[in-house]
Amino acid sequence: MHIEPSFRRRYQKALADQVMIKAVKLGTGRLRGKRAQAIEEVGQERWANFRNRAEAIRLHVIQHLDQYLEQLIDNVLKKGGHVCLAKTGEEAVRYIEELAKKKNAKNIVKSKSMVSEEIHLNPALEKMGCKVIESDLGEWIIQLANETPSHIIVPAMHKNRFQVADLFNAVNTGPKIPAETADLCAFARQYLRQQFMNIDIGITGCNFAIADSGAVTICTNEGNARIVSALAPTMVTIMGMERILPSIEELAVMLSLLARSATGQKLTVYNTLSTGVRIGEELDGPQEFHLVIVDNGRSKLLGSKYEKVLNCIRCGSCLNACPVYRNIGGHAYGWVYPGPIGAVLSPLYQGMDKYGELAYASTLCGACHVACPVKIPLHDMLYALRNDKVELEKKGELVEDITFKGWSAAFATMSRYRFSIRMARRFQFPLVKAGKIAFGPPPISDWLKYRDMPALPDKFFHEVWPELNKDRKE
Amino acid sequence: MAQGTLTGDRQAFFSAIRNNIKTPPGGKAKRVENPMEGLFTQRETTVEERQVLRDRFIQEWNTLGGQAFSVKDRQELVGKLGEIIRERKIKQAMRWDHPELEKLQLEDVFLQEQASLSKWPLDKDYQTWIDQAEAMEAGIIWGDIAMAESGTLVLPASTAQPTTVCILPITLIAIFTTAQLVDGFYSVMKLLKKRYGTSLPTTTTFITGPSRTSDIEMDLTIGVHGSKYVYACILDE
Lengths: 474, 237
Fold this sequence. Notes:
Number of helices of chain B: 8
Helix content of chain B: 25-40%
CATH architecture of one domain in chain A: 3-Layer(aba) Sandwich
Distance between the termini of chain A: 71 Å
Strand order of the largest sheet of chain B: 2-13-8-5-3-4
Shape of chain A: elongated
Number of strands of chain B: 13
Radius of gyration of chain B: 21 Å
Strand content of chain B: 15-25%
Strand order of the largest sheet of chain A: 1-10-7-4-2-3
Largest sheet of chain B: 6 strands, parallel
Radius of gyration of chain A: 26 Å
CATH superfamily of one domain in chain A: NagB/RpiA/CoA transferase-like
Shape of chain B: globular
Oligomer: heterodimer
Structural class of chain B: alpha/beta
Order of helices and strands of chain B: EHHEHEHHEHEEEHEEHEEEE
Largest sheet of chain A: 6 strands, parallel
Strand content of chain A: 5-15%
Number of strands of chain A: 13
CATH class of one domain in chain A: Alpha Beta
CATH superfamily of chain B: NagB/RpiA/CoA transferase-like
Structural class of chain A: alpha/beta
Helix content of chain A: 40-55%
CATH topology of one domain in chain A: Rossmann fold
CATH topology of chain B: Rossmann fold
Number of domains of chain B: 1
Distance between the termini of chain B: 40 Å
CATH architecture of chain B: 3-Layer(aba) Sandwich
Largest interface: A-B, 112 and 87 residues
Number of helices of chain A: 22
């Protein structure tokens, strides 16, 4: 899939795609509605307690990440699992490539993993001749379309059933599948089941790793990860290093929040808590388990003003709440993570030069913060990223400096403020047309390209107020 | 069990973390001592209270798209199972090797309906059992712990009670008594901690209704990978 390097081009392309916009509005609207209903059932006060508790849990874990990761690693190794510590995405990919080579793996079946998207695992494995199949329905759809996910929870949200039917019919050797959801799902079950039955290596993501028991938790509604971990002789779980909890007691809080925030369910249908390698006489479950713990830029966020973004549990509720995401969909964000969380993560993980513009993909309304189950102040972070970007680029420094310093001086005292707006009112007349300012000299000309500014009125409120107040008192 | 191996530079990996972690002015956040406290119902239940939980489980399970019902005794259970076998046209099924299922003599019920019921393990050879398991139209399991508040079965796996039986077949039949019912997460996690400590079973699966997806046009569809038809038969204590 070709990705435009410029954010402006990407969102312009998105805005022109009415099928996508309609689908995204429908999808996010439904998810928001279901989440609201779930919170209503829980009760606002109890929900607030859940969020506070979850925030406290995540804050503690991130500030003690080294301690919990050490504990997790030791426990996984003790139970016979193998651990790869990957500083970069490349290291993680290399480890899995070597494993696939060692196992002479032909068929690799994956369940959803955002980190695997982040490190571009599939193309690397395909390049070495492996057949890689995504088993999550949405992920499989976008794999067939050669696209990236447009939503964290519903990766193919931007596609309608007719587009899905075309994709399925392209790989179908039987009678044509009608563009009906039930028929499409039935085909997916049958097709993907054959892939499960020939699995050499199973690859899963990780919702939460549990430090004290060396377990990984994988949540799916479809059950695909459950099948992968039951049938795969070799299982690889890829986790972002921050996705860890101390014990199953914290897990109870997180699973309750995750499902309600993501889809409005009380619990995801299949929550699997796995310690990896089968033991004793067990016949199902993996004979070999590999846990790949990925840093890939995460450690540099620790102790920074962006540290709290590591609290994220990838529920996607900030996407559904965001007025910008709802109007441009996920692909406009350009990288793996879309929406407000993506607008923060992409520049931090991939660089300001590539994704710094995403800091402006927000109205700073704070809806993402309100929706976030672990209370990440995403809007504050987007604001901070804008500051960082300006600092980094120092673009237009002189003009901006003069403008903002002048602004700051004029608004510092009441008398200066009154004097400046009186002056502005007196000298605005060459620019005013029908009560609006639609053009002007640089630097405001750029701003006026896309919007008009109302002309300053004959009388300001503070000038009218004494008179109004007098009438009111009388 | 042989210890696993570690790949990667552990020291370098952790120094990147330790060098960056900072202690905020007020000190690092303390661990939440009782994370579940006050968020979930926590109580010991009586037999009568568990009958209320049974009704709640049935309501939740049915809302999710499954079918749950209570049965007084084995005789009633046999009748219900017969109905399910006929309704789903089940010819071959597999079940956990579990003492409670053993007591119920389910093989006789299947025989009466001219169907077969195989006990796990189906075969010791991987390729053979995997093919046999795939051909099974139903899996029968014992619901070890059942959470009423969310309609969830909690299934710790073992050699005789593998997860394959509850995930591969299109029909899942869970049988348990009201004694297995708890309110919600608080009791489940405490129970798991008490039973296993930190040595959890290879897998513990929480199943909350049938397999579902809304990946196409947000249209809810049941049974995309796991079980499409899920039954919960709750025997009175």
